[in-house]
TrEMBL record:
It comes from Fimbriiglobus ruber. Its EC number is 2.6.1.-. It comes from the Bacteria. The lineage of its organism: Bacteria, Pseudomonadati, Planctomycetota, Planctomycetia, Gemmatales. This is Aminotransferase. Pfam families: Aminotran_1_2. Belongs to the class-I pyridoxal-phosphate-dependent aminotransferase family. Its cofactor is pyridoxal 5'-phosphate. Residues 47-383 form the Aminotransferase class I/classII large domain. The keyword Transferase applies. Keywords: Aminotransferase, Transferase. InterPro entries: Aminotransferase_I/II_large (IPR004839), LL-DAP_aminotransferase (IPR050881), NHTrfase_class1_PyrdxlP-BS (IPR004838), PyrdxlP-dep_Trfase (IPR015424), PyrdxlP-dep_Trfase_major (IPR015421), PyrdxlP-dep_Trfase_small (IPR015422). GO terms for molecular function: pyridoxal phosphate binding; transaminase activity.
Amino acid sequence: MSVDPWFQTLFADRIGGAGYGKGTEIYKFEKIKRAKRKALADHPDRQLLDFGIGENDDLAAPVVRDRLKAEVDKVENRGYADNGIAAFKEAAAAFMARQFGVTLDPVNEVCHCIGSKPAYAMLPACFINPGDVTLMTAPGYPVAGTYTRYYGGTVHRLPLLAANGFFPDLDGIPADVKQKAKLLVINYPNSPTGAVATKDFYKRVVEFAHAHKVVVVQDAAHILLTYQGEPLSFLQVDGAKDVGVEVHSLSKGFNMIGWRMGWVCGHPKIVQAYADVKDNSDSGQFMAVQQASAEALRSVEIPREIRVKYERRLRKLVTALAQVGFEAKMPGGTYFLYAKAPTAAGGKTFANAEEASQFLIVDQSVCCVPWDDAGAYLRFSVTYTAKDEAAEDVLMAETVARLKGLNLKF
Ligand SMILES: Cc1ncc(COP(=O)(O)O)c(C=O)c1O
């Protein structure tokens, strides 16, 4: 038995206090990893069909990698980047203008982040005092909620239900919650549901923000992976810049997950507050990475190719899953297909999506991610490894072959 270190009782309550590291709860992604290990151990010759990975499968474009290589050798890029270089801010503003027709002042209305994840950790620091509320869609990307709690606030979950088109029911939020709410965090194209926003929805968000004095944070991580209509920025809607910011990322749309670049843009006072908190937390992304990211943002072709590939793969997956009984529909955006989990398969019944996914992984080596936050759903990602379109087709045929005999019930 391991002995506690002398400081065990000193851990802060926000991470579990003296009980830190002693919990027995196993997190979702750890359960998936364990199930994958079991599938590989039990069936070493059976290929794991991995729809669980939520990361782009390709390298960044050659022009971006070449630019990084050149910038690495420049002496002016060696130091602290603080709140970012003008070249990146200008490229981000020019991208917003070209892609969405949104005009931003690169100096005061754009500030980079080292990937968008840390921005969700920092924005609550700008607004949340103990007792304040952050409104967050569920399922959703959890970071802003975690930090809201770290700062003594609470999170009010807004379930994303198919019946509401995977939009939150803003009218249904209790009056006392609205009164304490300071932040509304939304995410469209939505991960994992794949829903895309409409102008009408964003107009309602702007009205809601004014009516209840709530700042809006719109997570646009997947925005360039939009298949239903043109990508829509929150800032395209009249009045949006008065009430919030949109957070962009180069991860998904430019195959730059590991490069860690994104930006916060919108109301200058919110951008300023974010930049102040950021300045007290990090010293900015390596300037060579910022220059290479600016290069990426100048390209129309790079995100177009990535979108075309994931759209093609999603269409194939919709067809494959529909053949075995899933109610699979083409998502409006993201590289995820979100489909109702089966309630039974292969003579077994499942109480929730997690049980269904564990069965599919262990029994069939078909990996997907369960979501039980608002109904029981499975998320299939098309970021699997396949060297060409023929390999994609082989993978789809194998997926159908594995699932067909299971007699999936929904
Ligand atoms: C919805 C959503 N928002 C934000 C992020 C963070 O992306 P990054 O930190 O790579 O910009 C992710 C990454 O998975 C995501 O899925």
